[in-house]
Write a structure and sequence with these properties.
It is found in: Cell membrane. Required for formation of the rod structure in the basal body of the flagellar apparatus. Together with FliI and FliH, may constitute the export apparatus of flagellin. Residues 1-29 are annotated as: Disordered. The longest helix is centred in the middle third of the chain and has 42 residues, at 181-222. Helix 7 (142-168) packs antiparallel against helix 9 (181-222). The protein has helices at 2-8, 17-25, 33-67, 71-74, 77-111, 132-139, 142-168, 170-175, 181-222, 226-237, 240-261, 298-309, 318-327, 339-356; strands at 267-270, 275-280, 290-296, 313-316, 332-333. It has a 5-stranded mixed β-sheet, with helices on both faces. It is mainly α.
């Protein structure tokens, strides 16, 4: 039994939408630091590549303006303040494109996996996070081992890429000493930019490994046991006792509404004891008769009592009563196979009304009601 209890608690089921929603509310979403690092490094490297000329020109102009000064400017304090303000503005303007790219990367990188999420619960202080024993357990956990292996993998990948780049650009770097100062500066900047882009690109491989791993760990953490699913179902839908009580109240309300329709009926057809169905037919507004109430046993008796109180004609036809009861829902039209049988009943009822008003002769009580063989049911609802 103990083994069965343990196995029943294994978290083998996928997380429900409710559990995922609660996890997001608590700030638990899949995140990849390596993906963020890749986004920032790659966009920064590409930003330097595309805006290097713009930033270089601005910085050269800034240097020229601050080192080429005439004598009057040197001895004028106001001019120095103006130069400082201009230098700050030009310096910020020169790096503004790169800063904008880094800002976008720092926002897009984290939300690329898991989407945008703000959680106040995640910022609440928790003393459990300061527990030294818990910290030691985390240090020697399987997750820490995986993080260590990931860190070693990153070092090896970047180290290998660095060695390859040094070999690739070795001849170019050796030739820098033979170039003029201007050309050497430009050439060294080109080497630096392309090397930065190449090294940043190596983080794509790291992110490609880390992202699926983070998704797997996140889904594994949120997995549920069968008992978790049952508990969540109780919390979400309510306890079975409460649900049963709600269904009972709904049935009672529906029955009360149905009983309120009985006084509008033209005729009630009975079993005569076990079933009662109330029919309404308005030739001017209806194509076919509608069953507005039905019931068995006590409900059938109540329908007959209401019918008697409102002087509604009650016709005993067991076969027809059972056929309507089992084939028609409340407020629905009767099946086409019962048109003839119901027409016989309604014709008698309408003729009887006219007779009681002093119009016409007394009609003959319907005896032989013709119900098709495929619509004849017994008391248990089975076809005869």
């Amino acid at each position: 039994m103990a083994e069965e209890d343990d196995s029943s608690q294994e978290k083998t089921e996928e997380a429900s939408s409710r559990k995922i929603e609660k996890a997001r509310e608590e700030g638990q979403i899949p995140r990849s630091r390596d993906l963020t690092t890749t986004a920032v490094l790659m966009l920064a490297a590409l930003g330097i590549y595309f805006f290097a000329e713009f930033m270089g020109a601005k910085l050269i102009g800034l240097t020229r303006d601050n080192f080429v000064l005439n004598r009057a400017t040197i001895y004028d304090p106001n001019a120095m303040i103006a130069h400082l303000a201009s230098a700050i503005y030009d310096g910020l303007f020169s790096i503004a494109p790169l800063m904008a790219i880094l800002l976008i990367a720092s926002i897009v990188g984290p939300i690329a996996l898991g989407g945008w999420n703000f959680s106040g619960k995640a910022m609440e202080p928790k003393l459990s996070r300061m527990d030294p024993l818990a910290g030691i357990k985390r240090m020697f956990s399987v997750k820490s081992l995986i993080e260590l292996l990931k860190a070693l993998g990153k070092v090896l990948i970047i180290l290998g890429a660095t060695i390859w780049l040094l070999k690739f650009y070795a001849q170019d770097m050796f030739r820098l000493v033979d170039e003029s100062v201007g050309n050497a500066i430009i050439h060294s900047l080109e080497i630096s930019i392309f090397a930065t882009i190449a090294l940043s690109a190596t983080t794509i491989l790291i992110a490609a490994i880390d992202v699926p791993l983070q998704i797997y760990e996140y889904n594994k953490k949120l997995k549920m046991s069968r008992q978790d699913q049952k508990d969540e179902s109780k919390d979400t839908d309510g306890k079975p006792e409460v649900k049963g009580r709600i269904r009972q109240l709904q049935r009672e309300m529906a029955q009360r509404r149905m009983m309120s329709n009985v006084p509008q009926a033209d005729v009630v057809i009975t079993n005569p004891e076990h079933f009662s169905v109330a029919l309404k037919y308005d030739p001017e507004n209806m194509d076919t008769p509608i069953m507005i109430a039905k019931g068995g046993d006590h409900t059938a008796l109540k329908i007959r009592e209401i019918a008697n109180a409102h002087k509604i004609e009650i016709i005993q036809s067991p076969v027809l009563a059972r056929a309507i009861f089992y084939t028609t829902e409340v407020d629905q039209e009767i099946p086409s196979g019962l048109y003839l049988a119901v027409a016989q009943i309604l014709a008698y009822v309408f003729q009887l009304r006219n007779f009681r008003k002093g119009k016409g002769e007394k009609p003959t009580y319907p005896r032989n009601i013709n119900v098709p063989r495929d619509l004849r049911y017994d008391a248990k609802g089975k076809l005869d």
